[in-house]
Amino acid sequence: MLPLALTMGDPAGIGGELTLRAWQALRGTARCFVALDDPDRLAALAATIGCDVPIRLVTDPVAAAETFRDALPVLPVRLAIPAVPGQPDKANARAVIESIERATKLALSNAVRGVVTNPINKAALYDAGFAYPGHTEFLAALTGAQGKQVMMLASPQLRVVPVTVHASLRDSLAMLSTEMILVAARTAHAALRRDFGIARPRLAMAGLNPHAGEQGALGDEETTIIAPAMAALRAEGIDVSGPWPPDTMFTAAARTRYDVAICMYHDQGLIPLKTLDMDHGVNVTLGLPIVRTSPDHGTAYDIAGKGVADPTSLIAAIELAASLTARRAVALGSAA
Description:
The chain is α/β, with parallel strands linked by helices. It has two domains: 1-143, Isopropylmalate Dehydrogenase, CATH 3.40.718; 150-287, Isopropylmalate Dehydrogenase (3-Layer(aba) Sandwich), CATH 3.40.718. Helices cover 42% and strands 15% of the residues. It has helices spanning 15-26, 39-49, 61-67, 93-108, 122-127, 135-143, 169-175, 178-194, 221-235, 252-255, 266-277, 312-335, and strands at residues 4-7, 33-37, 55-57, 72-76, 115-116, 150-154, 159-162, 202-206, 239-244, 260-263, 282-286, 292-295. A twelve-stranded mixed β-sheet has the order 3-4-2-1-5-12-11-6-7-10-8-9, sandwiched between helices. Helix 3 links the parallel strand 3 and strand 4 (72-76). Helix 8 packs across helix 9 (221-235).
């Protein structure tokens, strides 16, 4: 079975430690992956934190799958300078970007099953000329899916899709439109059917304003922007309810009534998901021709290199990517 490709992430963050711990946890399973990383960095990090992980350089993903049980397979991506935990350096930005690019190319050529990305520091990449708001937009450009990408955060307790993502709250409210809601909802619906195996997905639409606008008394976006999107979705046969007051739609009882919450802006969806299950939350990019997942946390510079980082979210991202690729392969086979 082909492996997943695991990117480097910010070499000054906890990504390397997570990679080492994930291999230890998964080495005896079918969830194999190949790290696109600097092998010297990983070896030095393993020694520093007392993590017994043999590193083995490989030249292709097939060799990675064959060696995974015995050693962490690494397709080398060399850093410009040694990484210092907790101290990002733009000199290494090129290696971070190269790791993502190579992993994506491998997935597009079906040399790996999908891509799992370790956390990056966007500011460090911006200083080096990185032209994208984040992973999601960069992967869309690399795969020819610009404008189609949609971010989902998924955990065993909740799935959320924010309509607007990496923008200030002021800008998010200004850019929100019926068409953006339609793109997010249609993409989420298609992904839940194909990749998550849900035959008839139930979408719950969040309101934008307190009390979902209180019939226009607290804002009219529910009527002027959200309702037209919902009407169009229903006309297409999509099961969508709402718009629901955001302060009550994430209770335990409410969550049983839908498969994904379509949220109007970033924090509206990510706050409840991370509050409910930070450890098992996974970032999934929908709308791409490849499967891509990531842990739902950042670089955690404050604990980098200390041997205390929790790999649970990365392991969840690897396991979800493996499940999604398996379901997608079945769906594509059925459609052929």
